[in-house]
């Protein structure tokens, strides 16, 4: 791998900064009690505000709410089931460019979750991402890669913000030999 | 909720130990609708450069969120969680969550509290960060 090639890739990646995922994507499902219950059971979170309607009636919101940390789940995209290719989705194009260059692995390294309001059953979340920065190529314990910072904005059906996430991932070329420990 | 002094600066949160199992990692990933194979398929995780499946960040955030509200009470409202990940959480790890109050402002309706937290496993800090909560009377 020559420096020239690396520099060319970084330059290509920098062109994504400021671009968005396109028009806000609507959550496949409205905020719903079964997904909330699954989350609480998986996490071992017994907060009655999420799952007990009787408690929630006299709770701070008067009804059950989704755990705030679920925010990203409502619109999480499963790449095994690609939707019709929408041109101009910088978030997905960036991943494709990196994968074609061998940077096929990903780990999240940080997130800042900001909650404007808690979501209630029936809320339909809309999602839009903006690529905020791409680091120069870094050597890490996992392998060489690029840190990508994405600003994720979440709005409700009325267009009002419900929360935002600044999300940092490392897109890397695995250093470990396949099958090794 | 007694408010006031309970949430004074310097107050430690009770430590919590979480056994990190394949079950917790897989259930957390699927509950957060994260089907990335590295969170549920050991062979795929190894091919992608990890020794085993690893916890996704949404599960970490969910565990931290539950840790905070179990301490602050179910009427607490979380406004922000700022989270940096370090050492991954793999099956067999034990993550020890600790925290302490670093800022606290008590008003008529409750307290606005900032908590610093850390989740460590045997290889170091898996997660560290701060969270802002509103704890209503």
Describe this structure in words.
- The complex is a heterodimer of chains A (181) and B (137).
- Chain A is of the alpha+beta class.
- Chain A has a domain at 3-29 and 88-174: Roll (Thiol Ester Dehydrase, Chain A).
- Chain A is built from 5 helices and 6 strands.
- Chain A has helices at residues 3-14, 33-43, 48-51, 53-57, 90-100, and strands at residues 25-26, 105-115, 126-134, 138-139, 143-155, 161-174.
- In chain A, strands 1, 2, 3, 4, 5 and 6 form a 6-stranded antiparallel sheet that branches.
- Chain A is elongated and about 60 Å long.
- The two termini of chain A are 25 Å apart.
- In chain A, 34% of the residues are buried.
- The mean pLDDT of chain A is 91.
- Chain B has 137 residues and is of the alpha+beta class.
- Chain B has a single domain, classed as Hotdog Thioesterase (Thiol Ester Dehydrase, Chain A, Roll).
- Chain B is 23% helix and 40% strand.
- Chain B is built from 3 helices and 5 strands.
- Chain B has helices at 22-31, 42-47, 57-72; strands at residues 12-19, 77-85, 94-106, 110-121, 124-136.
- In chain B, strands 1-3-4-5-2 form a 5-stranded antiparallel sheet, covered by helices on one side.
- The termini of chain B are close together.
- Strand 2 of chain A pairs antiparallel with strand 2 of chain B.
- Chain B: It holds the Pfam family MaoC_dehydratas.
- Chain B: Belongs to the enoyl-CoA hydratase/isomerase family.
- Chain B: InterPro entries: HotDog_dom_sf, MaoC-like_dom.
- Chain B: This is Beta-hydroxyacyl-ACP dehydratase.
- Chain B: Residues 11-115 form the MaoC-like domain.
- Chain A: Residues 27-162 form the FAS1-like dehydratase domain.
| Straight-line N-to-C gap of chain B | 6 Å
Compute the separation of the termini of chain A in Å. Answer: 25 Å
As for the CATH topology of chain B, it is Thiol Ester Dehydrase, Chain A
CATH class of the domain at 3-29 and 88-174 in chain A: Alpha Beta
Major sheet details of chain A: 6 strands, antiparallel
CATH architecture of chain B: Roll
- Tally the structural domains of chain B: 1
β-strand amount of chain B: 35-45%
| Helix percentage of chain A | 10-25%
Biggest contact: A-B, 48 and 43 residues
């Amino acid at each position: 791998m020559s420096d020239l090639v690396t520099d060319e890739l970084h330059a290509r990646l920098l062109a994504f900064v400021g671009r968005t995922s396109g028009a806000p994507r609507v959550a496949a499902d409205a905020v719903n009690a079964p997904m909330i219950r699954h989350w609480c059971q998986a996490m071992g979170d017994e907060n009655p505000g999420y799952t007990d309607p009787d408690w929630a009636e006299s709770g701070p919101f008067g009804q059950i709410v989704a755990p705030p940390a679920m925010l990203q789940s409502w619109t999480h995209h499963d790449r095994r089931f690609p939707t019709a290719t929408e041109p101009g989705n910088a978030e997905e194009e960036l991943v494709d460019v990196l994968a074609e260059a061998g940077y096929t692995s990903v780990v999240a390294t940080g997130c800042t979750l900001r909650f404007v309001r808690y979501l209630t059953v029936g809320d339909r979340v809309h999602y839009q991402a903006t690529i905020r920065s791409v680091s120069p190529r870094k050597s890490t314990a996992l392998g060489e890669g690029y840190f990508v910072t994405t600003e994720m904005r979440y709005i409700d059906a009325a267009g009002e913000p419900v929360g935002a996430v600044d999300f940092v991932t490392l897109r890397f070329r695995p250093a470990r030999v396949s099958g090794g420990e | 909720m007694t408010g006031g002094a309970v949430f004074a600066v310097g107050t430690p949160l009770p430590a919590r130990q979480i056994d990190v199992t394949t079950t917790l990692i897989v259930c957390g990933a699927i509950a957060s609708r994260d089907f990335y194979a590295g969170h549920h398929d050991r062979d795929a995780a190894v091919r992608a450069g990890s020794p085993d499946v690893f916890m996704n960040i949404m599960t970490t955030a969910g565990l931290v969120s539950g840790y905070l509200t179990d301490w602050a009470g179910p009427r607490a409202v979380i406004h922000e969680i700022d989270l940096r990940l370090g050492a991954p959480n793999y099956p067999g790890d034990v993550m020890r969550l600790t925290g302490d109050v670093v800022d606290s402002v008590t008003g008529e309706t409750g307290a606005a509290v900032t908590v610093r937290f850390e989740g460590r496993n045997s290889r170091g800090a898996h997660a560290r960060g701060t969270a802002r909560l509103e704890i209503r009377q």
